[in-house]
Amino acid sequence: PPLVALGGLAMGTDPLRVGEAAAIGLIAGGIAALALRGGAALRADPRPVLMALATASFIAGYTMLDGLGARAGGDSAAYTAWLFILNAPPMVALAWWRRGGQGLWRAMRAGWQRDLIGGAMALSGYGIAIWAMTHAPIALVAALRETSVIFALLIARIWLKEPVGRWRTGSALLVLAGIATLRLA
């Protein structure tokens, strides 16, 4: 989210109010705290953190492009549909290359119902995010998308019975504070 906010500021497309910037900072701080575990992750091996930052850069880039593309197109639903339609051929080609023709057809036959449901959920979820980017600053939508860490924490604790601990709880509370700040901004 901070990269998207900086991109929006640099391009002059999405200026943020102080409270909105603070909310993004809190949400990003909570996520960073969760990922870095007090710096232990960096001390152990910085490569995964650097890969995560590279991934974040790519995500920030496509988030900005999708938000601006949907705004320019004027129809977020059509933009989303075309995005998924145009992504399909390269994904099928990659699957064909990795699994071969027979392996791909076997995989498709074995899980087509599950895959269809998952695809519909992905289309709906990302479609809602793209629609929101046409109505609000892209960085705010990106920040709210990252609040899934709260749901992950609840799933880990309630269903998977994982120990959550103070660090993960504190990180999630920081994200929650960012959501509250965003609501009040």
Report on this structure.
The protein is mostly helical and 185 residues long. The chain has 8 helices and no strands. Helix 1 crosses helix 4 (46-73) and helix 2 (18-36) runs parallel beside helix 6.
Sum up the structure in keywords.
single chain; 185 residues; mainly alpha; 8 helices; 86% helix
Task: State the secondary-structure class.
Answer: mainly alpha
Give the DSSP E fraction (strand runs of 2 or more residues): under 5%
Q: How many strand elements?
A: 0
Low-pLDDT ranges: none
- What is the succession of H and E elements? HHHHHHHH
Oligomeric state = single chain
User: Could you report the average pLDDT, rounded to the nearest whole number?
Assistant: 90
Largest sheet: none
Helix content: over 70%
**What gap, in angstroms, lies between the N and C termini?**
16 Å
**Per the principal axes of the C-alpha atoms, what is the gross shape?**
globular
Radius of gyration (CA) equals 19 Å
The total count of helices amounts to 8
Q: What is shown here, in short?
A:
The chain has helices at 2-11, 18-36, 40-44, 46-73, 76-133, 138-145, 148-158, 165-184.
Furnish the topology, listing elements before pairings.
Layout: H1 2-11, H2 18-36, H3 40-44, H4 46-73, H5 76-133, H6 138-145, H7 148-158, H8 165-184
Helix pairs in contact: 1-4, 1-6, 2-6, 2-8, 4-5
